[in-house]
Structures are given as C-alpha cells and as structure tokens.
Amino acid sequence: MIWHIIKRELFDHINSLRFILTVVILSALMVTNAVVHLRAHPKRVRNYSEKITKSANELKSRSELYALARKGPGDLYKRPSSLAFIADGGDAYLPKNISNGESWSISGQGGEVKSNWWLNYGTVNPDATDLTPYATKIDWVFIITYLLSFIPLLFTFDALSGEREQGTLRLCLANPISRPVLLIGKFLGTLITVLIPFVFAVLLNLAVISVDSWTQLSVADWGRLGLILLIAACYAGIFVGLGLMVSAGTREPRVSLVVLLLIWVAGVIFMPSTLGTLSTKWMPPVQTMDQFRDARKAALKQINDDYGARMSAVKEKKSPNLPSLSELQKLYETSPEAAMAAAEKLRGTWETEGDEELALKAELIKGDVEIRERLNRERLDAQIAQVQRARAVTRLSPAAIVQYALESMAGTGFNRHLQYLEHVHQHTKQFRQFIVETDRADIQSPHFIGVPKGMSQKPVASEAIPKFEDKIAFSDTFNTATLDLLLLVLLLGVFVSGAFLVFIRSEV
C-alpha cells in the first residue's frame, strides 16, 4: 500500500511544471559550479605545487645544522582540497600557509646574538560575516542550503491541505489506508521526487569536472561524496517533514505556503547571519593587535634585561682586575692612554666566549622563541574559541548545520584549518626534535642549540631532514562532521514526528 502511494506521488510531481523547473535550475547551477571550478582549481593546484617545491629546495640548501635551527623548515603550506567545488568554506579569510616570524639580532655584551625561527600563525578572522553561512559562490553549499530547503516546501505545501480542500483526503482515508501509511508514502514520494533532479544535476556536475586532469578524486574522495549526498538527502528530508507538518495543520494551501515561506526565510536566511552577529556581541573581546604587541614587548624586554645582567656578571667575574665601564670612563678623564689600554684588554675579555656565555645565549634564544610562540598561540586560541562559540550559536539553524557538515566532509573551511594547524604543530615538534637529536649525536658539539659555536659543525643530509606534508584524511573529515550529522538526523526525526503528530490529531 505504501508503494502505491509513493508511485502516485511520484507520478503527480514528475508531471508538474515545478518538477521541470527544478531539473532545469539545479542542472544549470551545477554546470556553472563545475565550469567555475575548472577555471580556478588548476591554478590553485599549480600554485601549491610550485610553492612546496620552492620550499623543499630551500630546505635542501641548508646543509648546516645551525642554519636549520635558525631558519627552520620554511613556509608550511595548506593543501587545497580536491572537493573545494562542494564547499568554499571561506578559505579566502583563512591563512593558506604558516611562515616563520621576523628574525632579529642584537649586539652588545657577549657579542652578537641572532634569533631562531618561530611560528607566525597569521589571523583567523572572528568577524561574524566571515564565519556564518554566507553564500558568495555557487558551490554545493549554496545549492543544497537554499534550493534543497526551498524546493521541498514547494512540493509539500499543498500535499495535505490541498487534498483536504478538494475533499480527496477524506475519500482517500475512507479506504483501508491508515494515516501513518499515507503520511509515510507522501514523505518518501516527495523526498524521492526532490532527490531525482538533485542526483541528476550532481552526476552532470561530476561528469563535467571529470574532464579536468587537475581534479583527481581518490577512493576517500568518493567516499566523502557519498556521505555528502546522504547529508543532502537528510537536509531535504527535514524540509519535506516541515512542509507536511504545516500542510497537515492548515486547511488552505495558500495559508500553508505563506507560513512555510516565513519559516524558510527566518530559518535559512535570517537566523544564521543574525545569530552570528549577535553571538560576537555577547563574547568577551579578543586581544587587539596593539595590546598583543605591548604584552609581547614587555615579556621580551624582561628576558633581554635578565640576559644582559647575567652576561655582565659572567664577564666581570672573568676580569676581576680590570675596571668596570663606569670606572673606565673616569679613568679616561684623567689618563686617556691608560684608559685605552684597559679598554682593549676589557674588549678582548668580553669578546671571548666560553661555555657560560654560550649557555646564556642559547637560553636567551630559546626563551625568545617560547615567549613569541606562547603569546601567538594564546591569541590564536582566543580567536578560535570565538569562532567555535559563534558556530555553536548559529547551529540553531539547519542551514548552518548542513554548511558546517559539508565543509568538514569536503575538507575546507574552519575545521579543515584546525586540522592543518595540528599538522603544523606535529611537524614543528618533529623538526625541533630532529635538530636536538642530530646535535646530540655529535660528541664534539657543546650542545647549545641556536648558537653557531655551540652546535654541531657536521653537514646534515637533506634526506634526513623531516619534510612537511599536509594531508586530508577521511577519518579527520568524518570526525569533525559527526556532531553536525547527528544534529541533522535529530532534526529529521523531530520534523517527521511533528508531521505525524499533527496529521494524526488534525480533522479531515
């Protein structure tokens, strides 16, 4: 009996003008998406390949261990996703690489000291307009978020209220057909009707994209595509259930259509952007760049002052019979020649570097890197926390949920950037550990990392240097999308159950 109702719904919908328009609109948008992707993706892949090749060549040229310790692994680039045509993910607002921070050098007591490399994370923009669903490109997110929520409403607004107005609903239930069976048949029939043109448009999109040699989809990519289609089907099912629920509770199709349009505008268009904007106003402000620089300057000044005082103490301990700088100045006023001779001896003492001086320099360089990266990481974590809170608030809208799920599965957007940061942190730890272990393997090295005279002078084989490789793993994309998938399934159950309860309690 359910199959008979499904076939009747399919036949009625497929022979309607709105079905033909749905096929045309979805196909046109999917082809447009594919054409835009064919123009943009090859350039994106070429740029990425050229940059990682250049970075790898620069890394190979550093055969000295000190050069590796000072300049680091170079720029670390984020791999572009082969499924970027599905979800842009606001990648234009996110850093595409992490570079080394600006180097510095100081000359003074104890000679010259040069900085080691440290991570410069760039900026994650916490502005609500960049974080919430904001369609600026015709990607799958735009098509699914807006059309796969609007089209089901056009097919369901008169599914029950229209039959009630015409009297066919009473006649249908006069037969041995229960209300749950009728509702399930209409739900499945309408959902299949909506998915037929969508799947056709998807196949058309993939057929156009497959002609491009730059877009090579792996087995994992096809697996993610399958899950993306399930997400789209679940999202469409939510609005099919919503349409049936409203249609079951009204007696006139026009009333049902007006109510559904108001709900669609509020839930899909108004809520995501408005909730994102309001959420940023409720959050504590992130440290400004001026505040960040002041805090970093104060922390660095403290360790520099401490270094200067300790270095002076070491040098004065090594030259107890020589005058101090203040004494040397007084001596110069009375006996310039004696002062010049004493200054020459003092300069020779200060330029001499022993283990104590090398240890102080290594400690200064290490402390400088730790402070810079700690403060950078704290500011980055504060920005990330704001983004995550804003995304949690906007998840009150199904449109936001499906966007975040699609971005995660496509390997783009904010969650993908967090995975990239994690890869960078793992590589950074591995790279620094490699420098330490390589230096320890040389028994002739004093083992003061970051100081030219304090590190191993043996050449380093380029093959042994750790290489950074950013990957988009299926498990990572699925894990980040799990919460949004569960929320979509929950909403589907809520709206289908709501349609069932309203229809059971409504009068025919």
Can you put this structure into words, describing what you see?
The protein is mainly alpha-helical and 508 residues long. It has one domain (2-287, 394-505). The chain is built from 17 helices and 5 strands. The chain has helices at 2-14, 17-60, 65-71, 128-131, 140-156, 161-166, 168-174, 179-209, 219-249, 253-282, 289-318, 325-334, 336-351, 355-394, 398-410, 413-440, 474-505; strands spanning 76-77, 97-100, 105-108, 111-114, 119-120. The strands form 2 sheets. Strands 1-2-5 form a 3-stranded antiparallel β-sheet. A two-stranded antiparallel ribbon has the order 3-4. Helix 1 (2-14) crosses helix 8 (179-209), helix 2 packs across helix 8 (179-209) and helix 5 runs antiparallel to helix 8 (179-209). The longest helix is centred in the N-terminal third of the chain and has 44 residues, at 17-60.
